[in-house]
Amino acid sequence: MQTAPLTIFIADDNPRNLSLLSSILEEAGYIVRAAISGSGLLEGIELSAPDLIILDIHMPKMDGYEVCENLKARDAYREIPVIFCSALNESYNIVKGFEAGAVDFITKPFRSEEVLARVKTHLTLQQRHNQLKNALETLKAAQQQLIQTEKMTSVGILTAGIAHQINNPLNYIVNSLEGFRKDFDDIIRLVEFYNANEDKQIKGFQKKAESLRQEIGYPELTDEMRSLVEGIITGSMKVHEIVKTLQAFTTDTSGETAIISIEDEIERAVLMMENQFNGSIRLNSSIGKLPEIEGHPGTISQVVLQLLQNGLDAIKEKDPPADNDSVSLKAEISGGRGQSRIEIQVHDTGPGMQGTAVEHAFDPFFTSSRTNLRNGLGLTKCYRIVTSMGGSLEFDSSEESGTTVTIRLPLLK
User: What is the pTM of this model?
Assistant: First the structure.
C-alpha cells in the first residue's frame, strides 16, 4: 500500500545550507518546508506539524537550542524528532544539543548519504514509536474492557444467585396469598350468612352486630381487604416477573438454541427499563403479536435493553431534554408474502451521530458521546447477537431526526 510522503521542516539562516539540504531530501522523495529563523519554524509548524525537524544550531535571535527546548515543552510537538546541524569539531554543541532534546546530529559540510541515512533512521524509529504507542493504547482499552467484562460476569453470577434465593420465598408468598384469598372469601360468605339471618339470633344480637359493623367500617372494610390482597398478589407477581427476567439475562448462551418468544423477550427488556424513564423523557412501546423464533433465551432481551439504554443516555446529553423527548420501541411483522420477518425498531430523539462516527458505530472499542456505549462494545455485541440469529441490524442517525436502530429477524421455517 502506497503511503503519503513524509514532511521534513528545515530551519537555517544560511540560504545555501537550506538549498542544499532541500535538494538532497526532495530527491529522496520527502516533502521539504523551510524557514530562515527559529521563530519562523515555530510559526510554520502551527499550520501543520512535520514528521521530522532539522535545526541549525547557530541562528540569530533564537538559536537551535532555544527552538528545540520550546518544541519539547509543548505537548503537540515534543515527540517530533529533532536533528541538529553542527560542525564536525563542535563536541560541546553536540552534548548541549542532546540535553536540549535532539535525537541526532548531521555534520557540516553535508554529505547526502549521511543526511539520508540519519533522516531515514529517525523517521523509522518514530514510526515504530507511534505503532507501539497505538498498540499500548489498544491494549489498555482491551484491558479495561476485560475488567468491565469480568465485573459484568461477577454481576451476572451474583444476580443469578439473588434470583434463585428470591424465587423460593416468593413462590411461598404467592401460593400463600392465593390460599388466603380463598379463605378470606369463605369468611366473607360466613359473615354475610350471619348478616342475612341475624333476625333469628338471640336477643340483642342485631344491636351488637350493628355496633360492630360501625366500629370496623363494614362493608367498606371488606372492599379494602380485597383491594389489599389483590395489590399484594399483583406486586408479588411483578417481583416474580422481574426475577424471571434476571434469570433470562443470566442464562448461559453458549449452549444449544431453543424456541423463544420474541414478545416475552422484548417485554422483559421494557420491564427492566421502564423505571428509568421519568420527567420529560418518555418510553413508548408498541409490541404486536409476534411468533416464536429460534435463539438463545435472554439474548434479544439484552439487545433491546442495550438499545433502550443507549437512546435514554443520548437524550440525557441534551441540556436540558425537550418536553417531547422520547425513546420509542415498535415490534411487528413486516414484509410481504414469502418475505415476512420480525422487525424491531428503537428510535430516540437525542442528538444524532454524524460523519465517520456513523460508519464506525459497529466497530469494536469505537466510542463517542453518542454511542457510549460505556465500554465501546454495546452496538458491536448487539450486531453479533442479531447476525448470529440470521438477522440484520441497521443504524441510521442524524442531528435533525435522532437515531433509529432497526433489527430484522427471520421467522421459523
Answer: 0.45
